[in-house]
Each structure stands twice: as C-alpha cells, then as structure tokens.
Amino acid sequence: MDALVEVTGLTKRYGDTLAVDGVDLTVLPGEVYGFLGPNGAGKTTTLRILTGLIAPTSGEVRVLGGMPGQSGVLGRTGSMIESPAFYPYLSGLDNLRLLAEYAAVPRRKIDEVLDLVDLTDRARDRFSTYSLGMKQRLGVAAALLKDPELVILDEPTNGLDPAGMRDMRRLIRELGSGGRTVLLSSHLLGEVQQICDRVGIIAAGRMVAEHNVEDLRAEQELVVRATPRDRAQSVLAGFGAVHRYDDTLRVQVDPRRAAEVNRVLVEAGIEVSELRSTERALEDVFFELTTEEKADVG
Predict the structure, then answer these.
(1) Predicted model pTM
(2) Dihedral sign, Cα of residue 207, residue 211, residue 60, residue 71
(3) ABC transporter domain: which residues (predicted)?
(4) Domain 5-216 falls under CATH 3.90.1150.10
(5) 3-state secondary structure at position 227
(6) Angle between helices 258-267 and 229-236 (to 10 degrees)
(7) Which helix (H) or strand (E) holds 53?
C-alpha cells in the first residue's frame, strides 16, 4: 500500500534551536494517524512542513506523491494548523463562501461541510459569536471544502470543554470511516487511543515510536504489590522490564508465569499482597518512551 505521507530524516532548525530532529513518519491511505507528543515536542513544526507553510532544513518529504506546497498537492489536502482564523465580523457561512470562491469550490459543498460539522443552524451567525468548539468545527469545515483525500488537523480538541471534545472526536471518527485519511496531532493520550488506528510518538523533536495503537497496548504485564518494594523491584528485574506505577510494580512478563514470579518473591523474603495480570495502557507506553527519550537527550 502506497503511503500518502512519507517523511524521512526530517530536520528543522531555527538558529541554534533544533525543533525537529531526524523524524521518520509514514501515513497510509484510509487511516486515522495520531501524531502524539507533549507540547513543544515538534508536532506543529512537522505539520507546517507537511502543508508547505515552512521549508525543512533537511530530509525528504512526500505528500500525496508530490512536494508539500505544490498546487496539485494542496488541492487534495485540507488542513487546520494551530487556531483557525476567519473574519470575525462575517458569518460562518460567508467565511466559507469566500474560501470556496478562492479555491474554486462549488457552492453546494458549503452546505455539505456545514452539515457534516453540525453548524447549519448557526451558519448565519457572526464568527465572533461562536464558542471555541464552534470555531474549531468551522476550521474543520474549511479544511473539508475541497473534499480532500488527506486531512491534517493540529490539536483539533485544544481548549475545548468535555462536550466539545466529544463532538470533535465523533467528527474525526466519521471522517476516518468515510474513506478519508486523517493525520492529527495531539498531546492527549485518551484522544489518540479512542480515535486513531496508528500513532507516532515524538519527544524533544525525535520520533521515538510508530505503531498500531492496539499493538502498543497489546503487551500484557503483571501488576505486583509487594514489601519491601525496592527489593521486589530488584528481584522482578530478572523476569523483564520493571516500572513503578503508583504504589505497585509492573513487570513485562508472560502472565502465565505468575506462579513462578510469586514463588521467587516469597523465597526472597518478600511479602506479596497483590499479583494480577493487566493490559498495558497507552499512557504507560507513552511515558516510558518519552522518559527514555529525555534520558537519552540528557
């Protein structure tokens, strides 16, 4: 399957600041791809490069088989980078009319995208009267005007209340199920876990992992509550990687070895009060990977 987005060794410098450091990224047709990382990790810079807003310092970037910013690529791409900007004194409808005229898009598409983002009833209200969630949805509507193959959204739920976040997640899921390819950035683990098929994790400008969401979560662990915990951690390290989580230890080991793990701990004089298997949460994976990256950088 040919990738819609192919990034190899992408680097971007601003003076002495290295914002993006050798990023490799691949987005496949028909998927919702989550670009996940903390604020300041390099997500927006990467997306600005993919949409042709800024040029990379080095690396290879292909979007829809062409170079970012080329007219043929832009015509097949819809994007919302950072906060959507519209004329505040115009209605949502009139703002979209201006964009449609500029992009030579048929007027009928305006009604379609307004309905898709659930703004038909407020379309004639001034943009300045919109809530933050409505402004974000109008930004998505603008991105969809050209009926793009690829939709790029930068932190689409940023600043939204819980109801707005729910509506935006629903909209993104509908876009993905409708045959479009969606690339979205986020610093919210729960958001990515709910709506994305694959995820790339970036920290300090470096891509530290790129996997299917389910594959990242699929590894099972044993959760152990034992005293003294430091000694228990030392013993458990003989079975696999061990991470502290609240007042428990999590060891990456086949749960079928639970009886063996318990026996070894008890024989070492360690009191075991809890021992159970669990599936890893994306949150655990994220913090493990980003913590390791920070340690490498330091």
Answers:
(1) 0.77
(2) negative
(3) 5-229
(4) no
(5) strand
(6) 130
(7) none
**33 pairs with which residues across the strands?**
183, 198
What class is the 220-279 domain?
alpha beta
- For tokens 């409808």, the residue is 93
Q: What's phi and psi for 253, nearest 5 deg? A: -150, 150
Tracing tokens 């490069």 back to the chain, one arrives at: 49
The Cβ-side half-sphere exposure at 119, using a 13 Å CA radius, reads 34
Query: Taking the CB of residue 189, how many other CB atoms lie within 10 A of it?
Result: 19
In 3D space, the residue among 164, 150, 207 whose CA is nearest the CA of residue 35 turns out to be 207
The DSSP code sequence of 77-140 is EEEE-SS----TTSBHHHHHHHHHHHTT--THHHHHHHHHTT-GGGTTSBGGG--HHHHHHHHH
How confident is residue 280, by pLDDT bands cut at 50, 70 and 90? Answer: low
Using the structure block, give the residue that is written with the tokens 């519209």. 86
* Tens-place pLDDT, residues 191-242: 787 888 899 989 889 998 888 877 766 567 889 999 999 999 999 999 988 8
Quick count: other Cβ atoms within 10 Å of Cβ 74? 19
- The mean pLDDT value of the chain amounts to 88
Among the listed residues 50, 53, 58, the one whose alpha carbon sits nearest the alpha carbon of residue 27 = 50
Q: 58: which 2 tokens?
A: 């080095």
The strand pair at 77-80 and 150-154 is best described as parallel
**β-bridge mates for residue 267, sequence order:** none
Domain ranges across the chain: 5-216, 220-279
